[in-house]
């Protein structure tokens, strides 16, 4: 075995360290979040959290070397690892060997399961009954998501502080093998979690186990009853407490006195006012059977045990010794320092429920405080050494859960007592330390001292031909008493010798060489000797030289030194070690190779090898020596290089100046120190400044430019080479810079930020470039303005100004800039000039204060009748809002001021002016700074006039029973006419200058208008007035009276019918009285003569004439197409897709107010309905322009002297009378042909009706239109 340490910490001690911080390995793994695969450093952090943090090695060194580099107690370097580190390393190497992993690899991993199994080998052995009771008490069972293999089951047991060998035995008994195949071919055995839980609950007596024949203990049964039933009242079917007993059941618990928990332990608990009774066989049988879904014992076993337990003389309150009202443990007898799991109940009535013994405290809200705890209370306070009322071991419980588990360690018996009784009690507390009120009845716990347990491992420290030096780990369980001494037994061929030792290690002499001895050890305390440990075999050494060691580890190398460590040889006394350093290895091996050999003492584990060459590859080997001679040389280490030495000086260093920069050149050093030069370090220092600063810079190779220096100044430059070893010696050279332009002026500042009084001051530049400053240049730049450059200013004489060199430039008072624009950000730049050039600019930004407003533009003048309207744009406000304007009005000739007024807006009206005079105006603006300058005078303008009185309108011959047509000549106007307003009515209703409400009115931009909706056979006159920008003209004289016709035209008749019915289809159905799809002559004549259509007087001849027009074939009946041909013009007045937008602009002047409103209301209806309803609502129609002049009629008609007749009719033929017009209309309609069509059943608006030929847009205008 490898010799690692004289006494490494054993695995049992490592396990004890973990359980000293955590109650179980399960809790330790969960808190540490241990992964499935562990590196050495992760395992080290898990086993010793209080050890210094250790990170993984940056180089691929073996784990043993990384361990030897760990500091112990903050001391460096160390000569050997600590016992704890050696123990952890020993466990890691053992796990690596078990899993066939090379521990020398830097990425070596071991399994978490293997580590837990190794730690469990030092756990106390126990039976399945004991383990199952603890598992049921703590509620820690197997996972329920999958079946358990053997390794998974063993890990579950081990995590609950079980032993690995116990788990393996239990698995074999729980899953016996039934296959006859070979073990390698047999299927893997699996254990169902439900079966494991039921086995632990109902059948913990495994077949073949030592405790299988023992009867059930009450302590085992009560744990299972609580696990199955929850409380014992439900388990035994106890009767609930009576009302007369309820008053005394919840007596207030005793409050702690000044003597603390000790005084409460002396006072006996107040007996519950309950009738004590024994449990019957039926009650035991009910409890042991379990409940549906949670069965406990089999029927036969339950009956046997219930009969046995019913014979017990104990009453209910004294039946279970390991149960109190709120606390439950698995047993009453414990060993010192043994881990005790305690289940507590914070429910209203505790574990017994409503039918058992009364608890000490009752209620839904127990007086627990914020941090209640469970602790030990001495049952014999008169014993010496118990002045403190509580034991240090205490467990905090959560007051917010109804039930939980707490873990405590059994206290050690004082003064060598063999058996000491304690009481477990639950106390309320606010801080977790000071008890306030006892919440539970005391639960008796007995701690018994026993002889100590044997040491877990014997270690060979040294061996010779006639002696063995042995050591062992201390006993993990001293039995509660101090270990007095140890006994070591050595057996050789049935000869046993007993050796006494106070403490390890011990050396046993006078042994025979090359003999194997069987050793074991046991510990002894005041109660006697404990059991012997496991046997270990050791052999005395052969009288020979030490064997070969493993190759040493190179920890660190220097330029001429190397620090090495090694693992010493085990089983041999070593007087000294020899270390050899080789530059080249001979073909025969390291034994015959020449090298430097150095020696160290035999108790060392490291050494510093000196006298090596720099930057040279070396390999090292080691040999151990004793009294028998020198052992063989070890294997060689991997090749390592010593550190390089510092490089030599750079050669041929020179310096050349260029303006304010220096160019330094050099050659590499001859001796680079064994390693290539990485960079060169340059240091620059001024030779003329008072407080020179040293500038350092690094460059890769020659040359190097050094810029940013003072002009005309001497500098010293030092150059040194750097390699991996460090910086070599410096070499100095001097150089001088040339004259350069100065730096920018300093401390540039502005005073008096007024726009017309900005003063600039600055200080001379800190570096004049090696030549005095001759002058300065000041530049001023603003937004959207060209840069203003002031003339060069000579530097003022500081003495003449009465100042010093630090006086401000620009004169004693500074430099005043020209007047600037107000409230504007300006950038001021100042340059210094010497004989070498101009410096960079010193820049400052200033925002000027507000000034008076700028000069506005002349006002724009527009004419009104007898008035002038002035408008203007706001000038520049000077950085302050404009508050007011002042306007002056004068005659255009001599500019005599006629009026002067102040306004706040940007327009003003001038009234009371003479129409024949010309006027002009000017203005100025005012803000908080004052009045600005006056603007220029505006162009002369005179007030405008309204149009003259138009001539009397002239009625035209084109007239019907309900419409008249009139034209007129435009009046005189200085400005273009905008529109006309036409009035038509009775002459006696017209008042001069005012158009009465009676009559018809319309507006148009043309000089002709048609009035509709008039009464038949009535006399009317026309009046007109014009509008320009100045207003309306007076009304014209009345026209000659004109009379409407007495008879209506055919088109007016059919339009009235169309307006009445709304659609042609509705009119056809109304005329077709017999519903045969045809309109006869009698039906047509009769229907057309009805008064409900408001047609007025229509003669029989006129009705017959209309029927004849439609009856083209002379059949005496009208089909639907023939009937629809009569409505050609009325129905065709539906707006086309372009008509609404164009007709609105073309005819809105011809519509009165109600008609316009009607058009707006009908904007959402279909175009056809819009046109039909427009015919019903409109009473005035404006004539449209003919030909290609329709787009320009608005401008041409205003200036035309008279309306030509061709503009009305679109032809040069003379107008005809009404009879001729009707004959022409009849002739034209009769010439049109259309195919006869059967009368459709759908409405005229439906899609089934075909498009009528007479409704097209290409129809020629009829004469009567």
UniProtKB/TrEMBL annotation:
Keywords, sorted A to Z: Calcium, Repeat
| Annotated InterPro entries | EF-hand-dom_pair, EF_Hand_1_Ca_BS, EF_hand_dom, FN3_dom, FN3_sf, Ig-like_fold, Striated_Muscle_Regulatory
> What protein name is recorded for this chain?
Calmodulin
What Gene3D superfamilies does the record point to?
EF-hand, Immunoglobulins
Pfam families in the record:
fn3
Sorted alphabetically, which PROSITE patterns does this protein's record hold? EF_HAND_1 (PS00018), EF_HAND_2 (PS50222), FN3 (PS50853)
Q: Where is this region: Disordered?
A: 246-275, 841-865, 1186-1219
Location of the Fibronectin type-III domain: 454-543, 545-645, 646-743, 744-854, 855-945, 950-1047
- What residue spans carry the Low complexity bias annotation? 843-852, 1186-1200
Annotated signal sequence range: none
UniProt domain EF-hand: residue ranges: 1059-1094
Instruction: Report TM segments.
Output: none
């Amino acid at each position: 075995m490898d010799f690692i340490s004289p006494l490494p910490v054993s695995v049992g001690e490592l396990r004890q360290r973990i359980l000293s911080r955590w109650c179980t390995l399960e809790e330790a793994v969960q808190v540490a979040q241990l992964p499935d695969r562990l590196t050495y450093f992760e395992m080290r952090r898990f086993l010793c959290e209080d050890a210094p943090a250790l990170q993984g090695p940056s180089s691929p060194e073996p784990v043993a070397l990384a361990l030897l580099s760990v500091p112990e107690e903050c001391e460096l370097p160390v000569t050997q690892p600590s016992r704890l580190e050696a123990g952890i390393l020993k466990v890691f190497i053992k796990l690596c060997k078990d899993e066939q992993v090379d521990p020398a690899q830097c990425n070596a991993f071991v399994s978490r399961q293997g580590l837990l199994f190794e730690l469990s080998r030092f756990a106390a052995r126990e039976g399945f009954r004991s383990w199952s009771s603890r598992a049921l008490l703590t509620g820690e069972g197997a996972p329920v998501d999958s079946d358990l293999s053997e390794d998974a089951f063993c890990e579950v047991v081990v995590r609950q502080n079980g032993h690995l060998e116990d788990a393996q035995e239990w698995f074999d008994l729980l899953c016996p093998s039934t296959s006859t195949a070979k073990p390698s071919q047999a299927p893997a055995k699996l254990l169902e979690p439900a079966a494991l839980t039921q086995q632990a609950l109902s059948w913990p007596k495994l077949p073949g186990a030592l405790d299988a024949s023992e009867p059930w203990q009450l302590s085992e049964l009560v744990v299972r009853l609580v696990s199955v039933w929850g409380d014992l009242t439900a388990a035994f079917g106890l009767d609930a407490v009576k009302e007369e007993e309820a008053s005394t059941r919840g007596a207030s618990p005793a409050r702690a006195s000044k003597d603390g928990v000790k005084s409460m332990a002396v006072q006996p608990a107040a007996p519950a006012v309950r009738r004590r009774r024994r449990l019957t066989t039926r009650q035991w049988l009910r409890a042991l059977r379990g409940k549906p879904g949670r069965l406990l014992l089999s029927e036969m076993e339950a009956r046997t045990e219930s009969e046995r337990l019913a014979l017990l003389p104990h009453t209910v309150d004294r039946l279970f010794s390991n149960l109190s009202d709120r606390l439950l443990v698995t047993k009453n007898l414990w060993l010192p320092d043994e881990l005790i799991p305690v289940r507590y109940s914070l429910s209203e009535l505790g574990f017994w429920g409503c039918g058992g013994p009364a608890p000490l405290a009752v209620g839904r809200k127990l007086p627990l405080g914020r941090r209640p705890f469970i602790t030990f209370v001495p049952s014999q306070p008169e014993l010496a050494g118990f002045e403190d009322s509580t034991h240090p071991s205490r467990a905090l419980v959560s007051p917010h859960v109804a039930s939980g588990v707490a873990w405590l360690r059994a206290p050690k018996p004082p003064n060598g007592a063999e058996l000491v009784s304690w009481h477990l009690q639950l106390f309320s507390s606010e801080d977790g330390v000071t008890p306030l009120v006892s919440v539970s009845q005391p639960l008796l716990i007995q701690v018994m001292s026993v002889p100590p347990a044997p040491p877990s491992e014997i270690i060979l420290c040294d061996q010779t031909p006639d002696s063995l030096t042995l050591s062992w780990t201390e006993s993990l369980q001293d039995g509660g008493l101090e270990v007095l001494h140890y006994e070591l037994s050595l057996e050789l061929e049935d000869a046993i010798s007993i050796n006494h030792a106070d403490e390890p290690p011990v050396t046993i002499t006078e042994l025979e060489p090359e003999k194997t001895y069987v050793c074991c050890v046991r510990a002894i305390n005041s109660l006697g000797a404990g059991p012997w440990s496991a046997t270990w075999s050791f052999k005395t050494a052969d009288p020979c030289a030490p064997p070969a060691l493993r190759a040493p580890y190179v920890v660190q190398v220097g330029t001429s030194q190397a620090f090495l460590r090694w693992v010493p040889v085990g089983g041999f006394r070593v007087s000294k070690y020899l270390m050899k350093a080789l530059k080249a290895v001979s073909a025969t091996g390291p034994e015959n190779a020449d090298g430097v050999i150095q020696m160290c003492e035999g108790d060392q584990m490291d050494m510093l090898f000196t006298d090596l060459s720099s930057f040279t590859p070396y390999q090292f080997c080691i040999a151990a020596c004793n009294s028998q001679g020198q052992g063989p040389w070890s294997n060689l280490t991997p090749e390592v290089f010593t550190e390089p030495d510092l490089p030599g000086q750079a050669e041929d260093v020179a310096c050349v100046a260029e303006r304010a920069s220096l160019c330094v050149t050099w050659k590499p050093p001859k001796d680079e120190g064994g390693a290539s030069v990485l960079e060169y370090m340059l240091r620059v220092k001024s030779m003329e400044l008072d407080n020179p600063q040293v500038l350092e810079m690094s460059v890769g190779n020659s040359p190097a430019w050094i810029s940013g220096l003072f002009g005309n100044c001497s500098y010293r430059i030092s150059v040194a080479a750097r390699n991996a070893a460090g910086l070599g010696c410096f070499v100095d050279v001097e150089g001088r810079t040339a004259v350069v332009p100065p730096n920018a002026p300093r401390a540039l500042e502005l005073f008096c930020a007024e726009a017309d009084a900005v003063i600039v001051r600055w200080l001379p530049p800190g570096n004049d470039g090696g030549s005095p400053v001759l002058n300065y240049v000041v530049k001023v730049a603003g937004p959207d303005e060209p840069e203003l450059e002031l003339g060069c200013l000579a530097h003022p004489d500081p003495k003449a100004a009465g100042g010093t060199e630090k006086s401000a430039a620009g004169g004693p008072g500074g430099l005043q800039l020209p007047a600037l624009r107000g409230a504007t950000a300006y950038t001021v730049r100042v340059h210094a000039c010497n004989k070498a050039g101009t410096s960079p600019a010193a820049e400052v930004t200033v925002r000027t204060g507000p000034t008076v407003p700028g000069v506005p533009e002349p006002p724009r003048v527009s004419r009104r009748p007898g008035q002038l309207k002035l408008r203007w744009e706001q000038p520049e406000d000077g950085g302050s809002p404009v508050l007011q304007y002042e306007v002056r009005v004068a005659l255009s000739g001599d500019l005599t001021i006629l009026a002067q007024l102040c306004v706040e807006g940007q327009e003003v009206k001038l009234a009371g002016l003479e129409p024949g005079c010309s006027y002009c105006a000017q203005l100025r603006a005012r803000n908080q700074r004052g009045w600005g300058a006056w603007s220029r005078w505006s162009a002369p303008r005179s007030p405008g006039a309204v149009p003259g009185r138009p001539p009397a309108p002239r009625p035209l011959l084109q007239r019907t029973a309900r419409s008249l047509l009139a034209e007129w000549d435009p009046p005189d106007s200085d400005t273009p006419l905008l529109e006309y307003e036409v009035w038509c009515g009775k002459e006696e209703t017209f008042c001069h200058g005012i158009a009465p409400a009676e009559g018809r009115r319309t507006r148009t931009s043309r000089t002709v208008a048609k009035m509709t909706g008039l009464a038949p056979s009535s006399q009317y006159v026309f009046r007109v007035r014009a509008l320009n920008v100045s207003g309306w003209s007076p009304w014209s004289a009345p026209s000659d009276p004109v009379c409407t016709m007495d008879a209506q035209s055919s088109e007016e008749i059919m339009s009235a019918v169309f307006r009445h019915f709304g659609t042609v289809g509705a009119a056809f159905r109304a005329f077709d009285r017999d519903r045969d799809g045809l309109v006869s002559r009698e039906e047509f004549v009769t229907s057309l003569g009805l008064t409900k259509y408001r047609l007025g007087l229509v003669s029989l001849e006129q009705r017959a004439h209309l029927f004849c027009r439609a009856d083209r074939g002379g059949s005496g009946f009208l089909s639907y197409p023939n009937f629809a041909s009569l409505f050609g013009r009325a129905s065709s007045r539906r707006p086309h897709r372009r008509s609404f937008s164009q007709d609105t602009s073309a005819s809105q002047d011809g519509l009165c107010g109600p008609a316009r409103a009607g058009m707006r209301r009908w904007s959402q209806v279909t175009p056809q309905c819009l046109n039909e309803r427009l015919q019903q609502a409109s009473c005035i129609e404006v004539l449209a322009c003919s030909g290609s002049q329709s787009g320009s009629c608005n401008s041409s008609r205003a200036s035309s002297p008279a309306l030509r007749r061709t503009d009305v009719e679109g032809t040069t033929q003379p107008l005809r009378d009404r009879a001729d017009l009707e004959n022409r209309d009849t002739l034209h309609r009769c010439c049109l042909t259309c195919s006869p069509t059967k009368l459709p059943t759908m409405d005229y608006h439906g899609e089934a009706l075909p498009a009528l030929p007479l409704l097209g847009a290409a129809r020629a205008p009829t004469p009567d239109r």
